[in-house]
Amino acid sequence: MQASSWWPEPKGLNRVIVPVAAATVEAAEQQAKAIAESDADLAEWRADCLAVPLPGAMLAVIAASLRDLIAPKPLLFTWRTADEGGQAPVEADAAYAEIVTAVARAHSADLVDIQIRHPAAATLLGVAKEAGLPVIGSWHEVAATPPVEQIEDALRRAWQMGADIAKVAVTPANQADVIALLTAATRTAGKLPIPLIAVSMGELGLVSRVFGQRFGSAATFASVGPASAPGQLELSRLKQMWAALAA
């Protein structure tokens, strides 16, 4: 995929997506301002981190405001459900389709995350496509690392469903699990016509965040403030590590 306004060329060794992970709208705005001043490539609003759940229409308005604060960096909208590692309460899962639909139709972000295992995934992908909004088709396994073939299948499924970028994030129990994730990414990167993002979470998976680009992962995640997932490095630390590698 060539660079575009929503998928820019990386400023460093790989694209870096930085989360806005705040409990209040005011804190989200402050985080967005900090990210705007950083050398991150994209920002992600993890709307599920809000302490008080809000309806989709309100989240769409807030997303548009954050998008303005972060511009010209692209804004990814994500509302992660609890079963995939998000902070949204379990009983709020039914709101997923309403929220993603509202943001997509309002075009309040530059791209949107859709969990491909959600029952409404196919419908939501259609909604996003109709709105002309690019999609990251995501698949998170927070309890373990599945076999290589299953990870490959998840990436392939995201593409087959119509996602513009395929993403998997898994939780390793040992280094063999990290190798499984990297092996799946390497095998799949050359086969899919879309970019992929592959993350092994936690301290064990650090190599996937720092060196993921060597295994076919087209972006990584780092923080400027609160992290949104286990193992995220601060952006400044990640850039220092890359600079040391290039020296």
Descriptive overview:
By secondary structure, this protein is α/β, with parallel strands linked by helices. Helices cover 38% and strands 18% of the residues. The protein is built from 8 helices and 9 strands. The chain has a 9-stranded parallel beta sheet. The two termini are 29 Å apart.
Topology:
Layout: E1 15-20, H1 25-36, E2 42-46, H2 56-70, E3 75-78, H3 96-106, E4 111-115, H4 121-131, E5 135-141, H5 148-161, E6 165-170, H6 175-189, E7 196-200, H7 206-210, E8 219-223, E9 233-234, H8 235-246
Parallel strand pairs: 1-2, 1-8, 2-3, 3-4, 4-5, 5-6, 6-7, 8-9
Helix pairs in contact: 1-2, 2-3, 3-4, 5-6
Q: Which labels suit this protein?
A:
247 residues; TIM Barrel; single chain; alpha/beta; 8 helices
Strand residues, percent: 15-25%
What is the overall pLDDT average? Answer: 94
Let me know the number of strands. Answer: 9
The CATH superfamily bears the name Aldolase class I
Largest sheet properties: 9 strands, parallel
Supply the CATH architecture: Alpha-Beta Barrel
Count of alpha/pi helices:
8
Radius of gyration: 17 Å
CATH level-3 fold name: TIM Barrel
Estimate nothing, just give the exact number of structural domains. 1
Please write the string of helix (H) and strand (E) elements.
EHEHEHEHEHEHEHEEH
The shape, in one word, is globular
Write down the CATH class. Alpha Beta
Question: Any low-confidence stretches, pLDDT <50, length ≥5?
Answer: none
As a percent range, the share of helical residues equals: 25-40%
For the terminal residues, how far apart are their CA atoms?
29 Å
